[in-house]
Amino acid sequence: MVMVPELSQIHVLEMPSKTSICTLKPETDAKLGMPMSLRMWQPNTGSHPLLLAGYEDGSVVLWNLSLGQMLSRLTCHQEPVMSLDFDAERTKGVSGSSEKQLCVWSHKGQEKLELQQTYQLTNPGISEVTLRQDKKILATAGWDHRIRLFGWKKLKPLAVLDYHTSTVYCVAFSDHKKPSERLMAAGSKDHRISVWSIYNQT
């Protein structure tokens, strides 16, 4: 599937046929603004795929794709949600925005999103948040040119990687079969891509 943001709506298409599955439309008075970040997952229990969407107004919204229905809305940021990621095993996620704050939230019973924890950053602006596949490390790409690493379980700061000379736009982990061979890569406005070996034995 692919999600296509358009104004406040999200069009869900099945690939490669591009068949329309549904269109997610917030209520007129919701005033969410544009969807800025999307993450879909299939719960272990139940057959309905779910979608998390971060919006321009600072909200994270949980959608049921089968019903095209909004299940929960959590306003956890004062600025647009630039990126989010989700840990399906722990049913909790993380989001970053253009402000100085990371938010960790959980997906509790009855499809409700609840704020669990916040972390104040030194400088404003997060382009992307990414969880490593083993769900032990969280990486953030910062507008302050830095990559920050956290232990995901307790959001403990682990390292600040200061290599780039401009905004870091994206960060991603490889999924090599051997943990010792897994790498992290980051891309920046400075036209450079950095590749790192990060806590591979954790």
Automatic annotation (TrEMBL):
Q: Gene3D superfamilies, alphabetically? A: YVTN repeat-like/Quinoprotein amine dehydrogenase
PROSITE patterns xrefs:
WD_REPEATS_2 (PS50082), WD_REPEATS_REGION (PS50294)
InterPro entries from the xrefs? WD40/YVTN_repeat-like_dom_sf, WD40_repeat_dom_sf, WD40_rpt
Report the protein name in the record.
Answer: Guanine nucleotide-binding protein subunit beta-like protein 1
Name the UniProt key words of this record, in alphabetical order: Repeat, WD repeat
Q: Which gene encodes it?
A: GNB1L
Q: Where are the WD repeats?
A: 74-115, 161-202
Q: Keyword Repeat, does the record have it?
A: yes
Q: Name one Pfam family in it.
A: WD40
